[in-house]
Amino acid sequence: MSPGPRGATVEFQKVTKRYDRDVSGPGAVNDLSLLVPAGGICVLVGPSGCGKTTSLKMVNRLIEPTSGTILIDGRDVRDDDPVALRRRIGYVIQQVGLFPHQTIAENVATVPRLLGWDCARIRERVDELIELVGLDPARHRGRYPSVLSGGERQRVGVARALAAEPPVMLMDEPFGAVDPIVRERLQDEFLRIHHELGTTVLFVTHDIDEAIKMGDRVAVMRAGRLVQYAAPSELLTRPSDDFVARFVGADRGLKRLSLTTVGDVALRDAPTAREGEPASVARARAGAQAYVLLLDPERHPIGWINLARLGDDATLAAEHADPSSPFFTRRTRLRDALSALLASGVRTGVVVDEEGRYTGAFTIDEIGQVLSGPAPA
Amino acid sequence: MTPEEPLIRWDWVASHLDEIAMRAGEHIQLTLIAVVVGLLIAFALSLLVLRVPRLEPAATLVTGTLYTIPSLALFALLIPYTGLTLLTAEIGLVGYTLLILMRNIVGGIRAVPEDVRESALGMGYTRSQLLWRVELPLALPVIVAGLRIATITTIGLVTVTALIGQGGAGYLILIGLQRFFSTPLIVGAALSLMLAIAADGALVLVQRALMPWERSLARAASRPGLEPPSI
Questions:
Q1: Is the dihedral of CA A153, A157, A162, A168 positive or negative?
Q2: Which chain A residue has the Cα nearest residue B220?
Q3: pTM of the full structure
Q4: Which end of chain B is more exposed for a tag (fewer CB within 10 A), N or C?
């Protein structure tokens, strides 16, 4: 697909929203100043009632601020008619809000139709988007939302919001209503799509794990005020006060594992062996270690072999290898790697390259060293 | 009516087919005018009530009162002003449709899910685009349900308008009553009944044609679990 326009900057300048006339009391949002760089994902996170959704809705003027200014690419959102403004801003909400009386294609075509694109261009764009969010245009185009699963609806919601290539996208708990497995997949896919499009995203959630995963920068809010605005790793290593520390959780050290990948660990060499080699040769190579990693002729790992179980005259074969040995790529997040290692009972993780060939190994101890080191960049 | 007289004399029916057809035509015309005008007025009232909710009790009171006045009494009240005319008949008939239609239009639009409304506004629908493209289509099942009740009620009521000289099946019933002759009475009643059934069936067909998504909803509901839980 053609590269969309790069995202726009979004800036809050001393934005306040009050619902009551009482000027002395705190408002729903108080004096919020925040700069979201172009193409970034800024996550607004905080307990319910902290003003994150109100802040989001002031960007597309579903809510008007009491005072202060919001700028998109330096231009005051109040300079435009709200309807025209909203057509340039993608909007995804938790319940998705798909139009039940329209097919998936019609739903996705909403904003292009409002903007008066010609039919051929709309049709082409709709198929492109349905595919982008991982659905099959031929299968889903003509269906109605009622027959979709929750995850499929969210995908269509994202496609609909992206339809007119908006420079800014607002997402209000977009993955809040789906089960954790689906949510994780939708998050990963959205990050991939975002990487491709470079849209500026403001993302509201109450889930700190989601904030840390999705955000380039995370704005923690409490009672209508911005408490800390920082990169996720900084939030975890240097929470600005007790509230943020409590909010990110006592397990914030572990959460840093979500931000680091296997590629951040210094890899070591594990003893390896080939199919058909005598056990005695492998044992000599392994030295003090009880396990060798069995590789096939293309150096794809098959699994660990416990040499203590084999006699000296045995020949190494695939059936000796432990089939539960976990393999990772450099892009695997350390949290997932640690979890897989703990589940399999193996203490050494095998790292493979894009083609699945063995490149090195690391142990649980090395994950511990990454955690005790400085914050990742 | 004498005991040896059969309930229906088919020879009378056969010799009066032209008249029966004419009365059916009148009946349909009276009903159509009443329902269409009623729908337009109820629609305008509904928009007003939706925009200014504090007018709702007054609107309900007026349409509710019209609904409860006995039709004969209403005609008697109107005749000094509008005479034995089509207008008199239609004022009464339209009045009876308003309560049902307004309640269903207002209720149907209010039942549109808030998230659908919010996402429509958030994507840049204007208020009127929201109404015509989202709220009304989604309220259609409830509105059509109201339309069906209003239409059937009106078809029944039209039999009364014969009393003020506005024909329809009521005219046949009237002849039957005046002449103690059961055949036209039964033909008139059956005609009204058949028209009601036919109109209701036609509206169901219209509803299906206008709302393809409801069909797919029903299909999905009728075979739970068949849709693969892919994401």
A1: negative
A2: A147
A3: 0.77
A4: N
